[in-house]
Amino acid sequence: MSHLEGPNGDGGDPQQELKEKILEGYERLGPESTFRFSCHPGISCFNKCCADVNIFLSPYDVLRLRKRLGLSSGEFLRKYTLLPIQKDLKTPAVLLRMNDDRARTCPFLTEGGCGVYSDRPWPCRMYPLGLAAARDTPDGWRGERFYFLLQEEGCLGFGEAKEWTVREWMDDQGVEEYDRWGEAYKELTLHPHFDQGKSLTPQQMEMFYIATYDLDKFREFVFESTLLARFEVSEDLVEEMRYSDEALLEFGFLWLRFALFGEKTMKVKPHVAEAFRGQVDKQALARG
Ligand code: SF4
Ligand code: SF4
User: For atom 5 of ligand 2, which residue has the closest CA?
Assistant: First the structure.
């Protein structure tokens, strides 16, 4: 399997060449386009594709998987992920770590197929479809997007009779919820801030990683720092964030947009804003 665009919009540099090829030559599919495909235990290639693959995980993929496995976010990230170090990465990229065996099998593969099937990551749901953004649309990543067929070598699913529309496939694979989280995440990873050649400092990268992927650590930060004393956050949301990772992740997205890009996604409490204004006034007076 290989996947062009993850739900975070970050396919990673090694796939740049494939991206160019897809934009140039692949047939563009819409929701009602049809294709033939079926993947089932009776097919002779069954399970063969779940090895030696680059699967970029979104924060929501990690949330679902670690819950499924009953691990803390830190344990999951340590055990099952890799963070590729690339100089030009704008935001953290998290890869699913394959086993160290010769075939580099996915750690979740079992004889009966995917051992985390109902919580499998977005790219595993999408295959054999890929998603790409057309180049240079005025709306950037929100503009024209299209699907295309990724036909991996040795994948016999294309020889099966079952026909799908793209829309049917997405419904069947439960992609919609993942896409909703993916869109919210793209507000960060594809932020216009980066279009101007700006990047995040190492500290900001760390903050980004914690608030999106390492949610147990982020929960500690939210409840043990002065953050809740400084910002207006409804009591219901505060309570929800104590136990709901989804609520915490949604809050993390808003917090990052405020803290990193200066968006008005958080509201400072009036007394904090007042104190800040006071400080600015004093500094202005001191400067004369
Ligand atoms: S998560 Fe499941 S579907 Fe995806 S590569 Fe691993 S075993 Fe295969
Ligand atoms: S049909 Fe394709 S997706 Fe299914 S197991 Fe075979 S190689 Fe993998």
Answer: 46
Nearest CA residue ID for atom 5, ligand 1: 50
Bridge partners of 34? Answer: 165
> Rounded to 10 degrees, what is the CA torsion of 239, 240, 245, 250?
-110
**Ligand 1 atom nearest to CA at 47:** 8
Least confidently predicted of 34-43, 81-90, 212-221: 81-90
CA distances, 184 to each of 2, 35, 87, 106, 194 (Å)? 23, 29, 25, 27, 16
Considering every ligand atom shown, identify the ligand nearest to the alpha carbon of residue 42 and give its number. 2
Q: Long-range contacts of range 170-177, CB-CB < 8 Å, 24 or more positions apart?
A: 170/31, 170/129, 173/125, 173/126, 174/118, 174/125, 175/122, 175/125, 175/126
Which ligand 1 atom lies nearest to the CA of residue 117?
A: 2
Per-residue confidence at 143, pLDDT binned at 50, 70, 90?
low
The domain locations on the chain are 13-175, 200-271
Query: Considering every ligand atom, which ligand is closest to the CA of 113?
Result: 1
Query: What is the per-residue pLDDT across 27-70, written as a single tens digit (0 to 9) for each?
Result: 899 999 999 999 999 999 999 999 999 999 999 999 999 999 99
C-alpha span between 57 and 181 (Å, rounded): 12
From CA 39, how far away is CA 28, in angstroms rounded?
A: 22
User: Is the pTM for the entire model greater than 0.90?
Assistant: no
